[in-house]
C-alpha cells in the first residue's frame, strides 16, 4: 500500500471530523464540550458493533477484483487498508462467514490449492455477478444520512481505485441526494417556539448535520480532484 493511498484514505475520514466540528456551532451543541462530541463521533466511526455487513461485502469484492486470494491473505489486505481500518474493526471469523455468504450468492467462486509446505488453501475468485454488484454499489449514493460514517466512506475509498470518474460520479450523486434530504427537512421544520421546541431540536440537528455533510462533500471533491491527478487507479 503506497503512502499516497494511506494519506488520501486517512484524509477522507479525518475531514469528516473537521467538517462536523465546524458545523457544531448551533446553540443546540452549547451544552456539550466539543471534545466529548468528537470522541463520540470517533467511537461511532470505529465501533465494530455498528458495521454494515453489506458495505463490507463489497469491500471484499473490490479486493478480490484485483486478484484471487485465500481467506487469510484477504484478511491481511483488508486490515492494511488504512481508511477501512478507521471505519471497521474486522474479526477473522466474521470475514470467513461473509465469504461463504458471497460464494453462496454466486458473487464468488473458489478452488482448493495444495502447497508444498502448507495444507490446502481455499482461493476465492470474483465472478461476473460479483463484479456487476460491486460496480452498481460503488456508483450508488447512500439512502440515509446515518450511512455516511461507514458505507459512504467505504464507497469513496473503494471507488477511487477505479479511477477519478467513478469517484466524482459518486460524489455528485450523493450531493444531489443530500440536497433533496435538506429541502425536505427545511420544508417540514417546525417553528422555533416553546410549543414546538422538542421537534425543533431534532430537525435543527438533522439540518445542521446535512449542512456539514454537504460542506464535506465539496471539500472532498476539491481535495480528491487535486490529489488524484497524480494518483492513478490501483
Care to give the gist of this entry?
By secondary structure, the protein is mainly alpha-helical.
What CATH architecture would you give? Orthogonal Bundle
| Intertermini distance | 10 Å
Total number of beta strands? 3
CATH C-level label: Mainly Alpha
Note the overall shape.
elongated
Largest sheet: 3 strands, antiparallel
Name the helicity range. Answer: 55-70%
Overall residue-averaged pLDDT value? 81
Strand order of the largest sheet: 1-3-2
Q: So how many helices?
A: 10
- Strand % is 5-15%
Low-confidence stretches: 1-6, 17-51
**Order of SSEs, N→C?**
HHHEHHHEEHHHH
CATH superfamily: Winged helix-like DNA-binding domain superfamily/Winged helix DNA-binding domain
Radius of gyration: 20 Å
* Sheet/helix structural class: mainly alpha
Question: How is the CATH topology named?
Answer: Arc Repressor Mutant, subunit A
In total, the number of domains comes to 1
Q: Overview of this structure, please?
A:
The protein is mainly alpha-helical. The protein has a single domain, classed as Winged helix-like DNA-binding domain superfamily/Winged helix DNA-binding domain (Arc Repressor Mutant, subunit A, Orthogonal Bundle). Helices cover about 65% and strands about 5% of the residues. The chain has 10 helices and 3 strands. The protein has a 3-stranded antiparallel sheet with strand order 1-3-2. α1 runs antiparallel to α8 and α9 runs antiparallel to α10. The longest helix has about 30 residues. The chain is elongated, with a radius of gyration of 20 Å. The termini are close together. The N terminus is likely disordered.
Amino acid at each position: 500500500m503506497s503512502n499516497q493511498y494511506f494519506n488520501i484514505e486517512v484524509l477522507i475520514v479525518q475531514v469528516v471530523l473537521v467538517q462536523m466540528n465546524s458545523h457544531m456551532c448551533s446553540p443546540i451543541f452549547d451544552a456539550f464540550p466539543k471534545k466529548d462530541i468528537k470522541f463520540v463521533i470517533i467511537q461511532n466511526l470505529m465501533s465494530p458493533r455498528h458495521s454494515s455487513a453489506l458495505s463490507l461485502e463489497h469491500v471484499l469484492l473490490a479486493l478480490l477484483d484485483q486478484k484471487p486470494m485465500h481467506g487469510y491473505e484477504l484478511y491481511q489486505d483488508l486490515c492494511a487498508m488504512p481508511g477501512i481500518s478507521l471505519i471497521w474493526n474486522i474479526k477473522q471469523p466474521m470475514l470467513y462467514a461473509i465469504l461463504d455468504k458471497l460464494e453462496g450468492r454466486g458473487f464468488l467462486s473458489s478452488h482448493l490449492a495444495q502447497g508444498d509446505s502448507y495444507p490446502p488453501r481455499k482461493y476465492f475468485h470474483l465472478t461476473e455477478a460479483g463484479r456487476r454488484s460491486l460496480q452498481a454499489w460503488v456508483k450508488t449514493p447512500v439512502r440515509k444520512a446515518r450511512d455516511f460514517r461507514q458505507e459512504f466512506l467505504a464507497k469513496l475509498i473503494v471507488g477511487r481505485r477505479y479511477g477519478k470518474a467513478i469517484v466524482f460520479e459518486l460524489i455528485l450523486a450523493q450531493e444531489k441526494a443530500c440536497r433533496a434530504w435538506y429541502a425536505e427537512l427545511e420544508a417540514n421544520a417546525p417553528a422555533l417556539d416553546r410549543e414546538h421546541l422538542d421537534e425543533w431540536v431534532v430537525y435543527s440537528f438533522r439540518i445542521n448535520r446535512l449542512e456539514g455533510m454537504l460542506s464535506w462533500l465539496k471539500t472532498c471533491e476539491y481535495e480528491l480532484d487535486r490529489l488524484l491527478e497524480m494518483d492513478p487507479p490501483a
